[in-house]
Amino acid sequence: MAFTVVMGFSKNGTSFRPIPFFNPLPKNPFFDNNKTMTSFKWLFLFTAILCFASACFSGPVVVPENATTAEITQMGQIAMDKDRDNQAIQYFEVIRERFPENQEAVCGADYQIAFIHYKQKKYSIAKEEFNALLAQYNKPEGRALPQKYRILSTIVLKKIAEKQKILAEE
């Protein structure tokens, strides 16, 4: 049984002074020596790093075979919201592979992948991908594609040009 001294007000509440406090918890023999505590800290640190690494570097994503383009797009957007960009790219690539005939879904997936690269500051890759997406609009079947991705791609390409100009001046 141990006593701990804490600072607090006296019973009449007029002065702030040390007050003995009975600690009902017995000493834990696991933490009695410094070596054991240090080992525990390293074990905790290793576990935390392992958890972080597994969240960041997870393997391939699993997408149910019967998932629709909307469901896969939502999975990709959730991954993006959680800053799991590599997972998000995998989801959008699944759309490209499973639904190549759905031009609208593929166009959206292409835009999202390019935007992830832009967000990752991989400007040259993003620029190539946005330009490839815009080239799709110049084809005869490009009229059927959603115009929002053309507009957004043009805006992001302007931002990339500005950022590359700033980086070149530095």
Descriptive tags:
9% strand, two-stranded antiparallel ribbon, 2 strands, Serine Threonine Protein Phosphatase 5, Tetratricopeptide repeat, mainly alpha, 62% helix, 170 residues
Can you walk through the features of this model?
- It is a single chain.
- By secondary structure, this protein is mainly α.
- The chain has 2 domains: 2-56, no CATH class; 69-169, Serine Threonine Protein Phosphatase 5, Tetratricopeptide repeat (Alpha Horseshoe).
- The protein contains 6 helices and 2 strands, in the order ββαααααα.
- Strands 1-2 form a two-stranded antiparallel sheet.
- It is extended and about 85 Å long.
- 19% of the residues are buried.
- The model has no long low-confidence stretch (mean pLDDT 81).
Helices and strands in order, then pairings?
Elements: E1 2-9, E2 16-23, H1 34-56, H2 69-81, H3 85-98, H4 103-119, H5 123-137, H6 147-169
Antiparallel strand pairs: 1-2
Helix pairs in contact: 2-3, 3-4, 4-5, 4-6, 5-6
Provide the residue-averaged pLDDT.
81
User: Which secondary-structure class do the elements indicate?
Assistant: mainly alpha
Low-pLDDT regions: none
In the CATH scheme, the class of the largest domain would be Mainly Alpha
Give the helix level as a range of percent. 55-70%
Kindly identify the CATH topology of the largest domain: Serine Threonine Protein Phosphatase 5, Tetratricopeptide repeat
Our estimate of the beta-strand percent is 5-15%
Number of strands: 2
Number of helical stretches of at least 4 residues: 6
The CA-CA distance between the termini, in Å, is 65 Å
Q: What form results from the Cα inertia axes?
A: extended
Largest sheet: 2 strands, antiparallel
**Topology order in helix (H) and strand (E) letters:** EEHHHHHH
